[in-house]
Write a structure and sequence with these properties.
The chain is mainly alpha-helical. It is 76% helix and 0% strand. The chain is elongated, with a radius of gyration of 45 Å.
């Protein structure tokens, strides 16, 4: 680094008050540039500020005659003498005279270094005077302009920062001056343009890579931009160059503590920081003091961190024992560690050092209050309040009044008013402070958590019920805690308190999520386990409640002394019906120290007493309740009387009154309950609760809506506040009177016009009245008057519902048209709006715009998810769900565009956000199946069924995959499981019937019909049942019965279309023959009356044509299927012209629809009817080469059978057998395949094998086809199985007495063969 760079480095360290660094850099400058007196001057200044006054004086004396530094050395001599314990007045006067003399003829350099020194010691006006003289000189350098701009920055206000920025920009046009670049970055930082400042700092790093302050600045700007990850990266990069860099270690320690909540790492880094300070700034007491403040206020009173901080503070006090503020800070540390006596001593020391120190006096009074010295503290506080009247309000002073008011048991309203004042004053100090070390110190999370704890002392014990209005301070607590968690997510106490506020607000799920976050990060957090037990109790999860109590006890044995522990345990036992155990638990609680006023110690416990009072009363009231449930009414009344005596004259007295009313109500005496509650007056603290209880009795027990509303009207009249009118509005909504509710809400809004929640409630009430136009007008007016932006969402949602898509689009675009935001809540709002905008675009049929909106929402959601886990843990599940919803929507659009890979990618991303989202998993499984990846589909279905074993769609898909894999047994197993849970699920039953047919298990089917009838006595009237029955009868060879059942389902919207298709198929082929096949046609040609058969066929064709007209397909594939069926009807007439017409249609479909199996089969069938066998064979061979699929399973089977028929006709038995075996692999009950196999065996004179195959054909044809029976009997005869042949003949003749030839050809011959 050159001379100029070293001087800039020195200037930086002077401003940051790193004086040992100044000495080190100046020493380096002296080594390199020994002739330059400026480095000697700075060495002397650094030495002076390290407290070595005499040494510094000698150094200044040595250079006071050097031209460039003469003037500044004389000013420094005066400054050094004044710092001395015994100033040399003569030397000061002599130096002062020389300064005046030299100033007259000083050149530019002398004036510049004098101004620079004066700037460093804080005498900005004097510095400006010197620099302005320098600038007026001819040919003045840019150095003066740069320093003047820095002096403008020192004024600390925006206009001067803009002016300075202008100077810096002008100078930087000519040269890349490092000091000017630093100044420009500082100006931009002051103007809150952190990105611009960061860009400038990056320029410094690029041009001057060894200038370490640029990295420090970058680190701080990244923190201001809330980019913690980048800040950590910069800090680690800085430590690689300087492993003892104080600022980098400080930032890392802060990151580990505040962001990660990793106390061990933070403590280790703090230790490294202390060591670095010992080496790099050993005499810098102020720095030792400064680095501690942020840590003590953000560590959640962790003893390990506080010990490290105390060590550093004690070092600061040792170095500078005259500093009152150091002693006061050590006193504050003692308070944080709970050492009140030591705190009093240190504050006393601080007051001795500086009796005007406000921080020492406030600390001393606070210690007195904690020590129970109320009278002394009260007097001191009165004195301090009078002193402070002349200056601005102090947060600490107001807080002392809060503590005193609590100690004196002042009214709740008075204390809450003071607490509100504390928060308002405190947050005023944070205005315009960027995220920085200073922000953490000023925010003081520890102090804020104390305030929140004070607020929570006034909360009810039980969570609010749905719809119940909450005390206004709940919202204050939530806002404060969210600010803390957003800034210091590692502070688990804040997350715990959010959980407590959410629990008491009735938001149990949010409380659970926050507690889960606490326990994930610290499983030994006893208080979190205790609150989790309460959460489980309110969710009626009693087993988990007990487990949480056990865990709490295992981590902190002292909880046995907490009344709350016993209270939760007793409530859990009560809910589980263990009343006797609950009584024992509560009696144990009653015997705890301090449970009764007479036994309580006189020593004041401060806030704890107040909390204990609430818990004590809850124990009494719970004991009343369990005695009552145990049938011990006398004991219950006795305990209640004890409670009345115990709590009379206390703030809890009215809770006993309300409990008394509850007891009367539980005993069925509503009138007595009302009489008790009427005695509560508007002046008493629980007036609203009493009136709400009365209203509840009127509505639920006496069903009197008017008296119910009267209670809320009385609240509004006696206490006309926004909360009262809100309660009245909610009450009107509760009894379905939205018009009156709107009036009440408007009154609340007039008193609190900035409350967007009220505006939203009015809008929703207007929607409930169906007064949509007024609702729209209201929302628009509310938005114009500057209401919260989330009303835009409500309005857009309403416009979408009303199909006013263009208006909805405009509203959402307006809501999204703003400067980039970094607030988490604003990002969440934008994310929601983008998702709604995508829905609007979907309705407007603008898929491209919808995808763009969803992609923007996805980017926002990525940013939100990165931060929400730290800053707002309770919102994590909802935000993850929204992220999953966004990805799933993008995936749906990708499916519509047939970009399946992209769809799969987005569905998988959705599952990363919501691993257990069954809907998304199902869609992904479907997509894998459609893509021909059954293994991936199967994997997702199995995962889905692990979390939801009753998921019908997943089970069906599993069965479908097994079906495709020809693992029919597994497919059947999955469907059977589903049907056993829900026997009247006819969609599943229809699939099961098909699968059992393919497994050859017809005998298993009837029991499922019985199960369905048992589940639903009216099952036989259900179209689904009739359809399934028809399917079963059709498959078992009873076409006429099947037709009757299908006919009963034919008019149904769900089952009708499939029933019609099946009826048409039965009409066209009732005996399930191979249409176009010639093997059995030739064989059976002379059987039966051919004229009669032809008439029957013609009638069936006409019926099929009528049924075709009823078909109303909804899809393209449905229309193609209809055309196929129409042409099969034409072929069934066997008229050549019709068959040729059908052939043309099939050919046309086959050309337009690639590899369309039904069309190819239709062509082959038509060719066979037209006796063009080679052409038919060619089409069938095409089909035979294709991969089998479940959708075309029936057509594949018919194709293979027809091709086998052709091969048999040509005596190509081996080829035919291969095809028939393929048929039987896919359908073990295929009668026709067995029949053909039997025929082949018969031709080969293997009569036993032929008989075996005909047996199967006879069995699966339900012994109804006489031709099969004839051939079975014939082969039995040939195989010399005469008895079996006779049996089959009798079966055939019983069903078909006139069946020709069988008696003569087989029966008589078999009988003759049996005779001896």
């Amino acid at each position: 680094m050159d001379s100029k760079g070293l001087k800039t480095l020195i200037n930086y360290y002077c401003q940051e008050r790193y004086f040992h660094h100044v000495v080190l850099v100046a020493s380096e400058g002296m080594k390199r540039y020994g002739s330059d007196p400026v480095f000697r001057f700075y060495h002397a200044y650094g030495t002076l500020m390290e407290g070595k006054i005499q040494e510094a004086l000698r150094e200044f004396e040595a250079i006071k005659n050097k031209q460039d530094v003469s003037l500044c050395s004389l000013i420094a001599l005066i400054y050094a003498h004044k710092m001395s314990p015994n100033p040399d007045r003569e030397a000061i006067l002599e130096s002062d005279a020389r300064v005046k003399e030299q100033r007259k003829g000083a050149d530019q350099k002398a004036l510049y270094y004098a101004g620079l020194f004066l700037w460093h010691i804080g005498r900005h006006d004097k510095a400006r005077e010197y620099i302005e003289r320098m600038i007026k000189m001819p040919n003045s350098s840019n150095e003066g302009q740069i320093l003047k701009a820095w002096l403008d920055i020192a004024r600390g206000n925006e206009p001067y920062a803009k002016k300075a920025l202008k100077y810096f920009k002008e100078i930087l046009q000519d040269e890349k001056d490092i000091f000017a670049l630093l100044g420009k970055a500082r100006c931009l930082e002051m103007l809150q343009n952190y990105s611009g400042a960061l860009e400038t700092v990056n320029q410094i790093i690029v041009n001057f890579p060894s200038f370490l302050p640029a990295f420090i600045k970058k680190m701080k700007l990244q923190l201001a931009l809330q980019d913690w990850d980048q800040m950590v990266e910069t800090a680690q990069r800085l430590l690689l160059q300087d492993n003892q860099n104080v600022e980098a270690l400080r930032m890392l320690a802060l990151y580990y503590l505040c962001r990660e909540g990793n106390v061990e790492k933070a403590a280790t880094t703090l230790e490294h920081l202390g060591n670095a300070l010992d080496v790099m700034e050993p005499q810098n007491a102020e720095l030792f003091y400064k680095v501690t403040k942020a840590f003590s206020r953000t560590c959640g009173r962790n003893q390990l961190i506080l010990q490290k901080v105390q060590t550093l503070l004690e070092k600061a006090f040792t170095l500078s024992p005259q500093q009152s503020e150091f002693a006061a800070e050590i006193g504050y540390q003692m308070i944080l560690q709970g050492k009140v006596k030591e705190a009093l001593t240190w504050y006393q020391t601080a007051m001795t050092l500086d009796n005007t120190s406000i921080s020492a006096l406030t600390g001393f009074i606070r210690s007195q209050l904690m020590d129970g010295q109320l009278q002394e503290a009260d007097q001191q506080l009165e004195f301090l309040s009078e002193v402070q009247q002349s200056i601005e309000k102090s947060t600490e002073l107001i807080y002392l009044h809060v503590i005193l008011a609590m100690k004196k048991n002042k009214q709740q309203e008075e204390v809450i008013h003071l607490l509100n004042d504390v928060l308002d004053t405190h947050f005023l100090q944070l205005e315009d402070v960027p995220l920085s070390i200073q922000y953490f110190e000023t925010l003081n999370p520890d102090f804020l958590l104390e305030i929140i704890t004070e607020y929570l002392n006034f909360c009810p014990m039980l969570p609010a019920s749905p719809g119940q209005a909450l005390a206004p301070f709940f919202r204050r607590c939530t806002l404060v805690l969210e600010t803390i968690v957003r800034t210091v997510p590692g502070l688990l106490q804040a997350v715990f308190l959010i959980a407590k506020v959410k629990y008491l607000s009735g938001n149990i799920e949010a409380a659970f999520n926050n507690l889960q976050y606490c326990l994930d990060h610290n499983p030994s957090y006893a208080d979190a386990h205790l609150l989790m037990a309460q959460v489980y109790l309110s969710q009626e999860k009693f087993k988990q409640c007990s487990q949480s109590l056990e865990l709490c006890l295992s981590y902190n044995f002292d909880v046995r002394e907490y009344p709350l522990y016993h209270l939760i345990k007793a409530q859990s036992q009560k809910k589980m019906g263990e009343i006797t155990e609950a009584v024992k638990t509560l009696h144990m609680a009653m015997n705890l120290p301090g449970m009764r006023r007479t036994g309580a110690s006189s020593k004041s416990q401060g806030r704890k007493t107040e909390v204990d009072a609430a818990h004590r009363l809850s124990i009494f009231l719970e004991l009343v309740e369990v005695h009552r449930l145990n049938g011990e009414q006398h004991e219950a009344a006795k305990v209640l009387q004890d409670a009345i005596h115990e709590f009379s004259g206390t703030s809890e007295e009215l809770r006993v009154t309300i409990a008394n009313a509850d007891l009367a109500l539980a005993q069925g005496d509503a009138e007595q309950a009302l009489r008790i509650l009427r005695n509560v007056t508007a002046e008493q603290p629980y007036f609203i609760e009493a009136k709400e209880k009365m209203a509840d009795i009127y509505l639920k027990h006496r069903k009197e809506k008017m008296l119910y509303i009267t209670c809320y009207r009385e609240i509004a009249e006696r206490m006309p506040s926004p909360r009262s009118f809100l309660l009245l509005g909610d009450a009107y909504m509760n009894i379905q009177e939205p018009e009156e509710a709107i009036v009440a809400y408007e009154q609340a809004l007039s008193q609190n016009p900035k409350d967007g929640t009220l505006a939203s409630k009015i809008g929703k009430a207007l929607v409930k009245t169906h007064n949509y136009s007024k609702a729209i007008t209201y929302y628009e007016a509310a938005l114009k008057s500057g209401q919260q932006n989330y009303l835009c969402y409500d309005l857009a949602e309403l416009l979408l519902k009303l199909k006013l898509y263009e208006k909805a689009e405009k509203v959402l675009q307006h809501a999204l048209a703003h400067e980039p935001v970094n607030e988490l809540s604003a990002l969440m709002e934008d994310g929601r709006s983008q998702v709604l905008l995508a829905k609007v675009y979907n309705k407007m049929e603008r898929p491209g715009d919808a995808v763009t909106a969803l992609q923007q929402a996805r980017e926002l959601q990525a940013r939100i998810l990165k931060r929400v886990q730290m800053e707002q843990p309770d919102a994590v599940p909802a935000q993850k769900h929204l992220a999953a919803e966004i990805c799933a929507e993008i995936a749906k659009h990708s499916v519509a565009q047939q970009d399946y890979e992209k769809a799969i990618m987005f569905y998988r991303e959705a599952l990363v956000h919501c691993e257990t989202d069954n809907k998304i998993m199902l869609e992904l499984a479907r997509l894998y199946l459609a893509q021909g990846d059954p293994d991936a589909c199967l994997r997702h279905c199995m995962m889905l069924l692990q979390s939801d074993q009753d998921n019908e769609a997943a089970t069906m898909m599993m069965a479908d995959i097994m079906f495709r894999k020809q693992d029919y047994e597994q497919a059947v197993f999955h469907l059977q499981q589903l049907l056993e849970r829900k026997p009247d699920n006819y969609m599943t039953l229809s699939r099961l019937i098909d699968l059992l047919r393919r497994c050859g298990k017809f005998d298993d089917i009837p029991r499922f019909f019985v199960m369905a009838e048992k589940r639903n006595p009216r099952a036989k009237l259900e179209p689904g049942f009739q359809y399934c029955k028809g399917l079963y009868l059709w498959y078992t060879g009873e076409p006429n019965d099947a037709l009757r059942h299908f006919n009963k389902a034919r008019k149904d919207s769900e089952w009708g279309q499939n029933a019609l298709y099946n009826m048409i198929e039965i009409c066209l082929n009732p005996d399930n023959e191979t249409i176009g096949g010639e093997v059995f046609e030739n064989l059976d040609g002379d059987l039966g009356n051919s004229t009669e058969k032809q008439e029957s066929v013609q009638l069936a064709v006409r019926t099929a044509e009528k049924l075709l007209k009823e078909l109303k397909p909804q899809t393209i594939q449905g229309h193609v299927q209809l055309r196929i069926m129409e042409n099969y009807c034409l072929m069934a007439t066997k008229q050549k012209s019709n068959v040729e017409q059908a052939l043309n249609t099939f050919t046309e479909i086959a050309k337009s629809e690639n590899d369309h199996i039904p069309a190819l089969l239709g062509m082959a069938t038509a060719y066979m009817i037209l006796k063009q066998t080679p052409k038919a064979r060619n089409q069938l061979k095409r089909i035979a080469k294709m991969n089998w699929n479940a959708i075309d399973a029936e057509e594949f089977e018919k194709s293979w059978l027809l091709l086998a028929d052709i091969y048999i006709q040509s005596a190509k038995y081996d080829m035919a057998e291969d095809l028939l075996r393929q048929c039987l692999r896919h359908n073990r009950s295929c009668c026709k395949a067995y029949e053909y196999m039997g025929y082949i065996m018969e031709k080969e004179q293997a009569y036993s094998d032929a008989a075996s195959n005909y047996e199967m054909a006879w069995k699966y044809g339900n012994q109804t086809n006489p031709a099969v029976g004839y051939r079975l009997a014939f082969n039995y005869l040939k195989a010399k199985r005469y008895v079996d042949a006779i049996d089959i003949c009798h079966q055939v003749l019983e069903a078909h007495p006139t069946y020709p030839k069988i008696r003569k050809d087989i029966l008589d011959k078999a009988r003759a063969s049996l005779r001896p």
